[in-house]
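Worked example

This section walks through a single chain of length 169. The input is the sequence exactly as stored; nothing has been trimmed or padded.
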Amino acid sequence: MSHTLSIVMREDQPVLSIQTRTSMNDLPETILQSLMRVGQYLEHIGAQPSGPAFVGYYNLDLRDSSVEIGFPVQDNLAGNGEVMANIIPGGPAGVCLYTGPYQDLATVYQQLNTYIEGQGREPTGVSYEFYLNDPAVTPPNELETQIIFPLVGEKERSSGNGRVHTLFW
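Given that input, the structure is written out below as tokens.
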């Protein structure tokens, strides 16, 4: 397992995605089915992803997690109802490039939270995982995942704790 941690400024990222709710037990199948449907839609409209598949986590409830699953695209493209055009907002973010098995991501989330707090910053509570290689053909120890925690801006800081909790993996 290896990883690098940093704070970066990200640009807005147009995406085509499916927003849904799922349990953590059903998450792998939900991801697979959603990526297939978004991929089919991209093919139907003659477009290509501009980056790797991602999952956005809006809460981490084990039984009812709100997720967004899809692909970045070059331009703002229209959705079709099920597949939606969206934007992952830019701004400051804590980022980790992690190499290793998915089941160790909880430890990486904790380390990224600690790093961000050490920088005097606060996560918004949303997280994104971009999957940089294919788990169907890549050995678990070589899987690469970019983890992104958008950060509260200077004017938005609160006295609350925006830690991204790790209730899964």
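What to look for: The chain has one domain: 2-156.
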